[in-house]
Structure formats: C-alpha cells, structure tokens
Amino acid sequence: MLTYSFGVIEWTQTDLDNVNRAIGVMFTKYTQTDLDNVNRAIGVMFTKYRAYHPKSSIERFHLPRKKGGRSVLDIHYEQIEALRKYFHLKEETSPLHRAIHYEQIEALRKYFHLKEETSPLHRAIIKMDKGITPLNLRKKE
Asked: Which residues contact residue 122 at a Cβ distance below 8 angstroms, ignoring those fewer than 6 apart?
C-alpha cells in the first residue's frame, strides 16, 4: 500500500512481489537501505507512468504539493513521528513513561561522562551542550 496525497494506492500482491524481487528484500525487514530501495522503486514506477520526471529532485518526492513536491509520504518518517507523539503524550500522563524517560536520560548522561575521559568526541559534545539537549551534559550531577 502506498499513501499518496489524494488517498491510498492499493498495490496488488503481484506488484508487491515484483517490487520485493526488484529490491531483493522482504518487506518485514526495514533498514534504511531497504526503505531507500523502496523509494527508488516507487520513483521508477512514477517515472514509468509519467507521474514524475526522471531528473526531478529526489528531495521534492516527499515534500507537500503546496511546497512544490509530489506529496508521497515517507512511511519511515511518519512512523517515527507517530511513535514520538505517542510517547510524548504518554510521558505527560503516565508516571511509568515519565520514569523510563528520566532513567534513559540519566543512563545516557552517565555514559557520556564515562566516555569523556577517553574520547575527544564525547568531550567536545559535553563541552558544547549548554542545555541544548535534555541531557544537559555540561551539568555534572
């Protein structure tokens, strides 16, 4: 299934099998490379049916039509945003989610301060973080 600005384009099983064969992966595994290959296969299909120019900007593929794009939704990005919104709402309402959130922040803070002694990269990140991230690495608490 491909979500598009005017609705949903339903693919037949044959179409999905052809795309699956073309990119050489199963749709149950989603790595960034796999998603890029799917995007490429969709772009090829759009070009084949003259819905997209072959030399058109790749970045415009996922932009909304109002901004000059083709409005093809990036499913990977949409899923990440949906999860981010879900956990952000849960963090505000659920004590368990809030506790997990702060536990993760503390674990990451400890990790960065542990690596500070041996890694110049971590040292530089700590030096630059003046309340920019939720970790607030400059504070040693």
From this structure: 112, 115, 116
